[in-house]
Design brief:
The protein is of the alpha/beta class. Helix content is 30%, strand content 21%. The protein has helices at 65-68, 77-91, 108-119, 124-130, 141-150, 162-170, 190-200; strands at 18-24, 27-35, 41-47, 56-62, 94-99, 154-158, 174-179. The chain has a seven-stranded mixed beta sheet, sandwiched between helices. The longest helix is centred in the middle third of the chain and has 15 residues, at 77-91.
Length: 228
């Protein structure tokens, strides 16, 4: 049997191992699976015509099992993913790259170990360093391979993280601008978000007092808005 075409249907799509249409609560997306050299499987979740596209809105999103599956309040990852999918569905064109880079690339086990150190008083950077791990161990080469596989020529990157802008550009993708994605503040993750702004340069300001449940704020993008 031909496992790439077992029933007369094309299951691969260029560099992508698998491709289908997936109905979701945000609407129907094209979903493609990309296998990297190590065998990890990443997703390209898209709407609209992207081949040859300039200034395509893209969210490069790292897997976060704790928030996206378990509903953890320790970060803003699930809220950012939901916001990106909803925004792309609303506008009809764009892509979320879902990369298997749990815990800023340190993996699930080390992320849980870092959480234990945070419970003892370390912040997110201090915890990684106490474990002998980098602040951020992610690579964006796979993201650029996937975007090229989709035919994307340049992007508006949906992020609050300047390292993603630099990383994607360094990997060879033209980055035309940034779309803020500032959502998901709660009383549990306030310190985490404040650390990312103060020590990692994330592009927002955490508003309100320590007990006030307000969203972080950021200047809106003139080109595109994730929440408008």
């Amino acid at each position: 049997m031909n496992h790439d075409d077992p029933v007369g249907l094309p299951l691969t799509d260029g560099p992508f191992y698998a491709h289908t249409r997936l109905p979701t609560k945000h609407g129907t997306f094209d979903v493609r699976v990309f296998r990297d050299a190590a065998g990890a499987e990443h997703l390209a979740i898209s709407r609209g015509h992207l081949d040859g596209g300039e200034s395509v809105v893209v969210r490069v999103h790292s897997e976060c099992l704790t928030s996206e599956v378990l509903g953890s309040l320790k970060c803003d990852c699930a809220a950012q993913l939901e916001t990106a999918l909803a925004a792309i569905a609303r506008t009809g064109r764009g892509c979320v790259l879902y990369l298997r880079q749990e815990g800023r690339g340190i993996g699930l086990g080390n992320k849980i170990r870092a959480y234990a150190l945070q419970e003892a008083g370390a912040d997110t950077l201090e915890a990684n360093r106490l474990l002998g791990l980098p602040d951020d161990d992610r690579s964006y080469d796979v993201a650029v391979e996937m975007l090229r596989g989709l035919g994307v020529r340049s992007v508006l990157l949906m992020t609050n993280n300047p390292l993603k802008l630099d990383g994607l550009a360094a990997a060879g993708m033209v980055v035309r601008g940034r779309v803020p994605c500032v959502v998901g503040l709660n009383p549990v993750n306030r310190g985490y978000l404040e650390t990312k702004a103060a020590r990692m340069g994330h592009l927002y300001r955490v508003a309100g007092g320590a007990d006030e449940e307000t969203a972080p704020t950021a200047a809106p993008s003139p080109e595109w808005s994730a929440t408008a």
